[in-house]
Amino acid sequence: MKMARPLMLAGLSALLVWFIAQTLAVNTARRELDQTLLLTTRAVEAEVERLRALPAVVGEDARIRDALAGDGPLQDANTYLEAVAAHVGAEELFLINAEGDTIAASNWNTDGSYIGQNYAFRPYFQDAITEGQGQFYAIGVTTGIPGYFLAARVEVGGAEGVVAVKQDLSILQDTWRAAEADIALADEHGVVFLSARPDWQYRPLVKLTPDALAQLVTTRAYEGVGLGETAPLLTEPPVGGDARGRNWIARIGAVPATGGQVVAIRPLGALQLMAFGWAVLAALAALAVAATVKALEQRRQITALRLSQSEKMEAMVVARTADLAREVDARRQAEADLRATQEALIHAEKMAAMGRMSAAIVHEISQPLAAMEATLSAAEMGMKPPDAATVTRIGKARDMIRRMQRTTKHLKSFARKENAELSLIDLRTPLKSALDLVLPRAKVVGVTPDIQVPEGKVPVMAGAVRVEQVIANLLLNALDAIEAKPDSSVTVTLTTEGDQALIEVCDTGVGISEQDLPRVTDPFFSTKLTGEGLGLGLAICKAILTDFRGTLDIWSAPEQGTRVTIALPIAEKKEETR
């Protein structure tokens, strides 16, 4: 019983691997056969299309048209057809009148000349007369040499006829045989007329119906080969282009240029041998695994017997090892926290230094701006007589200086540490101040934020400067998000809902990825590649709002934009705000 299990496992493994290997090999062979079908189809189409236009072109020659109308010597037409056929490499080129009789041919001076032969029974003649063009593969009834016939109708006054060319496609067959490629071409009835396998020549793929057989007899397509006596190559019709014999598989595809089919064949012997080899390897591997498992089981039992007396000591060692591992993890975590704290302190110091430097710069430029504004006022008052154009230019200059003074005023308020005490403020005021603060950045981006506020006051208990800092930071983040995306916008909306005042900052920028969204409020986390903006960070915004008993909610999606919602409780006392 113990020996039977490994053998059963080996047998099942071999069977499974054999099935998988054969399936994979057959699928791979099918894909390779599809490539062969594609290449063969293109080669056949190229060979056929090479002379497809020749009958129509030849039919335009005056010698051919005169011969068909009976106005010119037939010898001129014969000589012309002979020269053209030799030049383009055609097997034969001939002219047939409306009754199907050949009246001129390129082989006029040979023993197997077509002149005087009637080909009215050939489908290429009938199709050319009725439809203008025809094509057909057949064994020549005059020469006994197979070929592909292309024909075109020619009309001269009241007379009509057909110019036909015969192509020798055996060059394709010779190429397949030289390359040892199992390829065959069949006509629309499924009769193989070119094949790399000689034993497939002039055999139907499936059993011919009586109607198809009768049509082939009527057209004398394969006269003399005993087509009705040959056994079909397939016992069952192909399904989805797949065909299979006893020791081969094949793929069958259509050839639009001939209206027939191309067959690519692959012997199964090599595939079956490969699958058998994989099965043998799987069986040996299963036996090796079974032997290894058995050896390991025996070793485990021996080890268990040897360690039965030291189980308590081993448990103590394991417990102590776990304690040491926890101590190591705790130390590593402490070191990581220390490094993070150091980096945070360095970053905070940099930000504080930048704030002090900004405050100093603002202080330095405030007085020159005031002096410039006073100088322009004095210049305007001292003009005698007043010059309207100059007054206008001075007025514009003073407006720009006042705008710079408003910006420096906001920056002073922004840099000043606000008292932690809360006061009753109108939420519209810091909203508009924040907009003034970010207007220079908005002009660089080329988008002016659209701010929508209610007409009445929105009183809240908060700090005006810190609220202004939060809104300015959110506006700068929104402007950064839309800078690289054209046709974007930023909208700020102030509304009330119940006992809550809501500020929504929406942009249609690049958005935030799903994995980064939960971390955007972490201290010093940023998705920006550079340090642009005020540097307050969403973590500081969230902390400021917490002091005001407010909340910060963020929704974002990549390439759709971001919506940040601030909620602050509306003050209960309805009194004038400062």
Automatic annotation (TrEMBL):
Membrane association type: Multi-pass membrane protein
Transmembrane residue ranges: 275-296
Pfam families from the UniProt entry: dCache_1, HATPase_c
Main location: membrane
Keywords: ATP-binding, Cell membrane, Coiled coil, Kinase, Membrane, Nucleotide-binding, Phosphoprotein, Transferase, Transmembrane, Transmembrane helix, Two-component regulatory system
Domain of life, source organism: Bacteria
Residue ranges of coiled coil: 324-351
Gene3D superfamilies noted in UniProt: 1.10.287.130, 6.10.250.3020, Histidine kinase-like ATPase, C-terminal domain, PAS domain
EC number: 2.7.13.3
GO molecular function: ATP binding
Subcellular location: Cell membrane
InterPro entries according to UniProt: dCache_1 (IPR033479), HATPase_C_sf (IPR036890), HATPase_dom (IPR003594), His_kinase_dom (IPR005467), HisK_dim/P_dom (IPR003661), HisK_dim/P_sf (IPR036097), Sensor-like_sf (IPR029151), Sig_transdc_His_kin-like_C (IPR004358)
Catalyzed reaction equations: ATP + protein L-histidine = ADP + protein N-phospho-L-histidine
Domain Histidine kinase: 360-572
Record-linked CDD domains: HisKA
Protein known as: histidine kinase
Species, as recorded: Tritonibacter scottomollicae
